[in-house]
Amino acid sequence: MATVIELPIQSYEGLIDPDWCPGCGDFGVLKSLKMAAGRLGIAPKDLMLVSGIGCSSNLPGFIHSYGVHSLHGRAVAVAEGIKLGNHGLNVVVTGGDGDGYGIGIGHFIHAMRRNIDITYIVMNNQIYGLTTGQASPTTMKDMRTKSTPRGNAEMPINPIALALVSGATYVARGFSGEPEHMARLIAGAIAHRGFALIDVFSPCVTYNKVNTYPFFKQRVYKLEDDEAYASSDTGMALNRSFEWGDKIPIGVFYKEEIPIYEDSEPVLQKGPLVHQKLGLDGTVFDDLMEEFM
Amino acid sequence: MATVIELPIQSYEGLIDPDWCPGCGDFGVLKSLKMAAGRLGIAPKDLMLVSGIGCSSNLPGFIHSYGVHSLHGRAVAVAEGIKLGNHGLNVVVTGGDGDGYGIGIGHFIHAMRRNIDITYIVMNNQIYGLTTGQASPTTMKDMRTKSTPRGNAEMPINPIALALVSGATYVARGFSGEPEHMARLIAGAIAHRGFALIDVFSPCVTYNKVNTYPFFKQRVYKLEDDEAYASSDTGMALNRSFEWGDKIPIGVFYKEEIPIYEDSEPVLQKGPLVHQKLGLDGTVFDDLMEEFM
Amino acid sequence: MRELTVGIGGAAGDGLDKTGDTLAKTVSRLGLYVYAYNSYQSVIRGGHIWLRVRLSEEKVYSHGDQLNVLIALNQDSIERHAPEVNPGGAIIYNSDKLKVDPVLPRENVLTVPLPITTLTKQFGKVQPVMQNTVAIGALVFLSGLDFDTAAEVLADTFKHKGQAVVDQNVAIARAGYDYSKENFVPLGYEWSFSRQRRPFLTGNEAMAIGAATAGCRFYSAYPMTPATAILHWMANHADQCGIVVKQCEDELAVINLAIGAGHAGVRSMCATSGGGFALMTEAIGLAGMIESPVVIVEVQRGGPSTGIPTKTEQADLNQVFGASQGDYPRIIIAPADVTDCFYSTVEAFNLADKYQLPVTIISDLLVSEHPETVEAGALVGNVPIDRGEMVTEWSEDKGPYKRFEFTKSGVSPRALPGTENTIYVAGSDDHDEGGVLISDVFTSPPVRRKIQEKRMRKMETALGELAPPTLEGPADAQITMIGWGSTRGVIVEAIRKLAAEGITANQLHVKYLVPFHTNEISEILRKCKRTICVEANYTGQFARHLRAETGITIDDHIRKYDGEPFEPHHIVEEVKAILAGTVKSTDVTLDEAREMAYHYIRTRLSETLRPGAISLTTREGIDERLWSVEVVTRDTAEKSGELLIGIESGSTHSWRAAELKQGASG
Amino acid sequence: MRELTVGIGGAAGDGLDKTGDTLAKTVSRLGLYVYAYNSYQSVIRGGHIWLRVRLSEEKVYSHGDQLNVLIALNQDSIERHAPEVNPGGAIIYNSDKLKVDPVLPRENVLTVPLPITTLTKQFGKVQPVMQNTVAIGALVFLSGLDFDTAAEVLADTFKHKGQAVVDQNVAIARAGYDYSKENFVPLGYEWSFSRQRRPFLTGNEAMAIGAATAGCRFYSAYPMTPATAILHWMANHADQCGIVVKQCEDELAVINLAIGAGHAGVRSMCATSGGGFALMTEAIGLAGMIESPVVIVEVQRGGPSTGIPTKTEQADLNQVFGASQGDYPRIIIAPADVTDCFYSTVEAFNLADKYQLPVTIISDLLVSEHPETVEAGALVGNVPIDRGEMVTEWSEDKGPYKRFEFTKSGVSPRALPGTENTIYVAGSDDHDEGGVLISDVFTSPPVRRKIQEKRMRKMETALGELAPPTLEGPADAQITMIGWGSTRGVIVEAIRKLAAEGITANQLHVKYLVPFHTNEISEILRKCKRTICVEANYTGQFARHLRAETGITIDDHIRKYDGEPFEPHHIVEEVKAILAGTVKSTDVTLDEAREMAYHYIRTRLSETLRPGAISLTTREGIDERLWSVEVVTRDTAEKSGELLIGIESGSTHSWRAAELKQGASG
Ligand SMILES: Cc1ncc(C[n+]2csc(CCOP(=O)(O)OP(=O)(O)O)c2C)c(N)n1
Ligand SMILES: Cc1ncc(C[n+]2csc(CCOP(=O)(O)OP(=O)(O)O)c2C)c(N)n1
Ligand code: SF4
Ligand code: SF4
Ligand SMILES: [Mg+2]
Ligand SMILES: [Mg+2]
User: Which of C330, C625, D53, D584 is 20 to 30 A (C-alpha) from C412?
Assistant: First the structure.
């Protein structure tokens, strides 16, 4: 890898100031993302952020880079298309738990087994924020929300475990209360060749009064602080992914370097599709017609 | 549980003979399903089969019971609605790997975390049969199909592992070459209170020339034959779910009894919704209007 | 008719809605009619919110054209709305935080500065929202409302928080009331309070209650503005009404669960907006094919795509009409107001059961989210429930039960799964009378032809029982105003205003969009002198639909697609322009230029600036006339930049002002 | 004009398609024109398949009305199609397995029993499909085709399997040829073989090649009949054509990947059928909103819902038109034949790029799956490629780049992500020129109004460059036949037949459905004497669309919705009925009753039975006239039951025959 010229965080200062509620966890993610991009020296023009719909999905509007603020639940699919269309871009998907683990879970799982080279940051506030506080796929069992006044009857989804059994090659978890740590996770994810998931505890200060900053501050510990832990062992990673209680792990659960989807595409070996000239070369057209004579 | 009067397999003889290709694995599933229903003494009128679209999804047309032959990928969702509408029915979803793990994976995963009392039988032939042989989500890596002439570039999905981390409370695998064994699995699944998955190796003799009867006959072994194995241990189950090679396990990977979704619904405690009288009782309407005055 | 319109302006999180509620409930209890509309943004905190509450002694059908009292909770609201306050009105604001530039208000408008801090400090720690309560107190005094009733409402609102909170709120309101009493003369409104109790609710609430009343037993949903309130109501009343309420992973699940429940035999409903409905269309075709009843509510919002999620529009008709592939039987109903929302929902359930098909109720943000007072007793609990032809028992000697029997009406008596001797498979593949697929081994063209005819026959049968629309108003009127859905009320009011100006108009409002009363409507329109269609979308989807169904081309069109609902004066002005033969211009007006400047300043410049003087100009190299908008500092009003806005294109040609912002990257 | 239609009937898995290919390729190489249509079922093995191959010295536009030679591969095919063979024709069948009941064929039809086993035993182990090859040999002799050419084709077909296989196949064909030569006289066809080489391909293949030729670089898909063949072609030619072909998990992914790729700047396409398209609609609105080019192919099949998946219909127009919520710019094109499929696809890519919007090509099973001979040189490789206004470089001193600039044409020059100084966010929420959301903090009604106008302006601009349809044929014709998509060819042939009967007709065929040439089409239709719309659906979706766009009501309609394509005689007969003023009856005809009986017998009784004599009757307690269909045993023809089919309803009133089946549960 060529030597990196780091960029100051200001390089990514967006045209618009974030309109999140004061204290929203997403501010931390925005900051960490800028730090990470800066450290990797990614020019804004080479950074493509793709999001769905939700408070968290508004992030691309608040950073100086290309962005597609797509449909609720479709960000990963749009991002896959963009990546295959121009794999010269650093494609980062930023969205919410409802967006990614609810309506978007199909794309999430299938993108992972493809190991396409995308970084996926999920601002997991365990609630539907933009729609004012209904249960999300990660809302804790029995929690009361606007859509579950009696308490949530469903087991929350375990995104880390899903990622581990679905073939993601970089699986991590961050916390908005730890922006520096998260910046390292994001930098690692973007640098990683393959599908990288970063599930982030990003508290919704307005609608989730349970999973708050204090809730996580008291509980989170860093996997890297545990010598016993090896981020190359799926079994170990799976065990830790189920840890939820007094201690909750953050950091890199799993990391593995294997060929990415783009490697399997002969056409992409000639460089980004978008830079390849249009039209068929030489006698190809005639060869195609021959088949029908 | 009341004493069961078993029913002969003929009780489920369908109006129409199956139109599957001679030798299709789905014949075995149909037979095992009838055997299982008979042993549990389920009257045809109390059995509701729900399917999507695919060769496998044609099954409800070939058995004497109620059926909804719904949309590709939506069977589980339709089944959840039917179950909540009338939980007096035994609801069994029968479909294919493309139907359930491809287009339908979102419903699959979310139904499991709900632990709704449905049995889901997936005739997993690792191919799209009805559409004449494209790669499915369980098609082995590098296998050539009509849609992957260069070989499949994607990691196959691991339905057993997905079920285990998603909260399914009965997770099993069968093989069409072992109808008696499969019948036991299905009977166990229907009898089980909660979401039960049975992934079935059901060879497509026409479009999948790799994962054939001989392929599985040589490899499958029964978990119940292994004393060391405990179907109450998720970790163990996860390990076995990744076994794929000379030896491939079939049988019950995991089983657990916990409250089902229906238990959490006060309204359902009064009996099946469909039998509850329509309209609001007593002064409820006036009470509702009071809130707006 | 005595009436008063109060506008409350602030930001999300300022608690406007609660304040509006208190006001609306108070006057409702006094026996006045209320119609409110809240113009809000897709943001949880901040942004600009503009709530209008119209009070009147007689029923009102829109939020009207007037602004009599402004309650400003932030500076933006003063700057933008102070000039709108009618003479004789008042501007109420927190003088500790805000100020009113004397140039803003018109003649004879009372400014009511409230020293909130001083007024509230005695009550210990007060949340910012309590400034609203003080303002309410002031408003009650100024507009001659009854304080005790307001106190009652506050008491009911806060009783769950305990007496202390109740007392504090009442006292705070009282402080506002007394302070105004000491310092200002009332605006001189003389009300006669009937104190007749009437419900005050939104269209969404009416649809939810309508469903519950009609025996809805299953409701599935995925949150989506502006349909979410139905989910919230359902969730909160599930046990009370015996409804299973299921939030699903997405709208694909929502509709398929609803269809499953409907197929099992329970009355089921789901609701969403345009984007969610797009995901439901395939399954709606399924319901049509397997002939299972289901009710879908589509609450339209500004599109296309995610669009303007908190704004109103009527542009999903094409989508609802075009839902799913192929020809299949279905019914589409567009309710016009809150009462209609209730009964349309009840009717939707009966139609869905009788004709065994999907019924879509197409609403919009305006009708669904605005609350209004409905007549006492207008909504009743004992509604007719008709489940249609059901087979509850069947004996083999009648021969095998044929779920899809080819009948004259097209309706095949329905047996629910679990009924003895009625076993069948309902398939999305086409099938014969007995449910056996015809797509499989042996497609039989004639069987296909006959089942398709059988299914579609249900549409004619259904049309027969739906009430055709009627022409309201003088048959010989100069013009006929045509509308659908939420525009009925505002058209009614526009027609009254036109009458006052000597222009006679009558009104044709269409409720049933599919099936369509082609004959009756053609009959009516053929007699009309000049037809004008009013709808809130760009392409005129309803006018197109009407022409498609009748061949009749409507003469003129009044359309709005900026997200804000029609106000009577919009229609009146356009009608007059149409009659005068003036072609409608899409040029940017001066007021619009100011609004555009506001958007630009707030998004790209800063909170400390605002638009100043605006003048016409032209510039070298720009081939259109321009609005030159001065950008000035809020307090000192000194010029700090200029924006050039194209009158024709609406393009902001000069971005020079952008330099004012640090680090702004353009 | 000399022509011949061969019908090949059998079951799925009998290898009909290969046989048809061999025949078609053979005559193509001889310089004849071919048009083939395969009527198949949604089943992998078994079922009834009916392939018609029409050969002619001049171009033919449909599979025609004739049946000259029947190649029957099973007994069903003989029973059902033998009576259709025209006098002078022949019935070729395997006499070891099948027999022809002498009552079936008409006068002067040659029966050609082939003792396959004897003829093939010398070649060792022969697969059943080789009976087809023998039949081909016989056909070549009987219809005066050239055996050597057939041998060539067989050689090319099997060369990848080695010389041995080639020799065996050629020898087997030869055996059939020689045997017929010894035992039968040829049918007396005199052909002049131009031996002009012309491509013989399907509409799906033409669209795929059209895409590749136009520079499509990304193709995503999820298999769905009848669009799957495009995926297969793309997958097989991906590397050769430099296309990334991606099969996705569902159609939601398919369209969103395609849009992503299009947004990144590559030409991208996807294809599906009605059900899959239903899942794509939300994203199509997204493409309209973010103004990203994408091409979608919707190949219609019989609906509603899963419907009749292997049958043709034109009933998805409502869906394609109504795709997604709100008003947004898009283009919809309906290709009429194979050549048109190629050029429509090329054009679709250019339009998508120039106007930065989604272009949907609405095809149907007939045009997509039928193969036909296209004129030599009709398809060329050097097609025009126009990417529209692109911004390839931008300097800050021009001010910030405005992705959605409000221009006169509505088209805002597009910079691809990665271009220096052009950073922007493309949002599904509505936005201003710079891409900043207007739905969020500060919705600005005038900005919203202007961007909506800007987007929609593109439609007018685009309409300007699309070729308006023209009236083909005599301007003063008695009738004007109106159609869209796949019906053009069959209408052309029907018009010729009508002319032969002294009825003059001209033709208006519409290709661009959105935007619509309202003025030009109104202009044309106003001059027409009597208009008749021909379309393959129940409700007349196109006639409705045309009325919606023009206000013009078409006089008469010819519709078909049984899944089988129109044949010229269908149109001719209906036109004559229309002119005669006879109202169309939906009663079940005798032939239809037989087909319905076949369906009933095959699905509920047994393979050993078939319909026998059919007579008119009535029955106590059934309030309609009935067809009484005898059910007889296949071999002995003895009566073993009776079916009563309602003439009006099509209902099978009597199910008595069902008792014949063991264990049948009704
Ligand atoms: C198809 C569709 N369904 C529903 C919605 C409404 N909607 C917008 S955001 C959202 C959920 C947001 O939750 P999450 O993804 O967790 O983001 P957060 O706001 O919590 O950051 C929903 C349901 C939509 N925009 N589109
Ligand atoms: C929305 C939609 N997309 C695509 C299809 C076409 N389709 C029918 S069956 C099928 C796949 C079947 O594969 P699988 O579920 O594995 O069943 P199998 O035939 O292998 O038993 C597809 C893609 C459809 N019917 N609906
Ligand atoms: S609602 Fe929650 S998620 Fe949304 S901005 Fe506010 S705090 Fe953040
Ligand atoms: S194609 Fe495969 S899956 Fe389908 S019926 Fe034949 S063998 Fe079974
Ligand atoms: Mg969230
Ligand atoms: Mg399969």
Answer: D584
At residue C254, does pLDDT exceed 80?
yes
Q: How far D6 CA lies from chain A's nearest CA (Å)?
A: 20
Instruction: Match 């100069």 to its residue by tokens.
Output: C478
Least confident of B37-41, D51-55, D128-132, D655-659: D655-659
Q: Which residue has the tokens 């679709």?
A: D348
* Cβ contact, residue pair B131, D603, below 8 Å: no
Helix (H) or strand (E) holding C559: strand C556-559
Query: Ligand 1 — pocket residues by CB below 6 A?
Result: A 53-56, 72, 96-99, 123, 125, 127-131, 136; C 222-224, 251, 275-276, 279, 306
- For A9-21, b where at least 16 C-beta lie within 10 A, e where not — what string? bebbbbbbebbbb
Whether the complex's predicted ipTM surpasses the cut of 0.95: yes
Distance CA A150, CA C636 (A): 54
d(CA B135, CA B128): 6
- Least CB–CB distance from D286: residue in A49, A71, A84: A71
CA–centroid distance, residue A98 to ligand 3 (Å): 13
pLDDT tens for each residue of D616-631: 999 999 999 999 999 9
pLDDT, tens digit (0-9, with 9 covering 90-100), for C515-569: 999 999 999 999 999 999 999 999 999 999 999 999 999 999 999 999 999 999 9
d(CA B190, CA B180): 15
Cβ contacts (< 8 Å) between B71 and chain D: which residues?
275, 305-306
Question: Given the CA of residue A56, which atom of ligand 3 is nearest to it?
Answer: 3
List pLDDT tens digits, range C230-248.
999 999 999 999 999 999 9
Q: Report the residue of C27, C198, C257, C328 to disrupt the B interface, i.e. the one with the largest count of B CBs within 10 Å.
A: C257
Beta bridge partners of C50: C9, C39
CA distance A184 to D117: 76
Q: What is the DSSP letter of C336?
A: -
SS3 D357: coil
The Cα-based distances of D610 to C406, C443, D111, D600, D637 in angstroms read: 23, 16, 21, 10, 8
- pLDDT tens-digit readout, D433-465: 999 999 765 668 999 999 999 999 999 999 999
Q: Which residues of D touch C432 (CB under 8 A)?
A: 599-600, 603, 652
Cα distance between residue D467 and residue D347, in whole Å:
12
Determine contact, residues D55/D68, Cβ cutoff 8 Å.
no
User: Pairing between strand C294-300 and C268-272?
Assistant: parallel
Mean pLDDT of chain A: 97
Across the interface, do A85 and D379 touch by the CB < 8 Å criterion?
A: no
* Residue B283 to residue A71: CA distance in whole angstroms: 44
What size, in residues, is chain A?
293
Given a cut of 70, whether residue C597 has pLDDT beyond it is: yes
| CA dihedral for C260, C265, C268, C274, sign (positive or negative) | positive
| Tens digits of pLDDT across chain A (293 residues) | 467 899 999 999 999 999 999 999 999 999 999 999 999 999 999 999 999 999 999 999 999 999 999 999 999 999 999 999 999 999 999 999 999 999 999 999 999 999 999 999 999 999 999 999 999 999 999 999 999 999 999 999 999 999 999 999 999 999 999 999 999 999 999 999 999 999 999 999 999 999 999 999 999 999 999 999 999 999 999 999 999 999 999 999 999 999 999 999 999 999 999 999 988 988 999 999 999 98
Nearest CA in chain B to C198: B293
HSE at residue B75, side-chain half, CA atoms within 13 A, is 38
Distance A91 CA to ligand 1 centre (A): 21
Nearest C-alpha neighbor of D489 from the set D337, D339, D338: D337
| Residue B200 β-bridge partners | B123, B174
